[in-house]
Amino acid sequence: MLIIGIAGGSGSGKSTVVKKVVKRLPKDSVSVIYQDAYYKDNGHLSPEERAKINFDHPSAIEFNLLVKHMDMLREGKEVPMPIYSYLTCARAKETVPVPAREVVIVEGILTLQNPRLRDRMDIKIFVDADADDRLMRIIYRDIQERGRSFIDVLEHYERFVKPMHLQFIEPSKRYADIIVPQGGENIVAIDIITSMIKMTQNAKVSGKTTEASK
To answer: What is the mean pLDDT of each run of 10 residues along the chain (214 residues)?
Structure first.
């Protein structure tokens, strides 16, 4: 199994990179785990309290469960990935079954920030983008998908997103094996990533074949 971590700031184009990489690999050979699914369940909080949640801080994520699920996948076991709603700040009773496949991609803003998660990765990727581009994408996404007003998005960005990006996310770039500027628009980088994955897979298979023949 090959475990790949894909990190980057909010609105950097991580999801687009993941989709394009998956599309270039054989069908049903990749499973994707989303860090966003592992936010702690805060459905019991009032709307006022939910508005104060800092989703960009590492403490908002249940990393213990995420790491446990990564270990289960490496052991060949299917995992029940949570379903999280930004509207209710709660987890659904249902889960999404994620099978153990040849390639597992872990995607999220803080996937390279957590050392336990980072240690389980074979390839670490950071998707980079200009702050202006990220902000435009965040505005569009939060208004369309999370029901926030334009003013709410800007206040949230200034209070949480920008300072947390500078404190936790941007520094995690130094752990990356590959940095992808321009996000999902960088076709050359995506082709290189895909080729690296295939080469690493082939090397692992060759290594197992060699061991088995001894």
So the answer is: 93 91 91 96 85 89 96 96 89 95 95 95 93 88 83 88 94 94 86 86 63 54
Cα–Cα separations (whole angstroms), residue 171 to 28, 111, 183: 33, 12, 18
* Tokens encoding 94: 């249902």
Task: CATH number of the domain at 154, please.
Answer: 3.40.50.300
What lies within 8 Å, CB to CB, of 90 at 6+ separation is 41, 42, 43, 44, 84
Question: Can you give the pLDDT at residue 206?
Answer: 63
Residue 75 lies in a domain: yes
- Smallest CA-to-CA distance from 21 within 195, 200, 201, 203 is with 195
- Phi, psi of 46, deg, nearest 5: -75, 160
Q: Where does residue 96 fall: left (phi above 0), alpha (psi -120 to 50 degrees), or beta otherwise?
A: beta
- Strands 123-128, 178-181: pairing is parallel
pLDDT on residue 74? 94
47 is in which domain, residue-wise? 2-197
* CA atoms within 13 Å, Cβ hemisphere of 98: 25
Give pLDDT tens digits for 180-197: 998 778 889 899 889 888
The residue length of the chain stands at 214
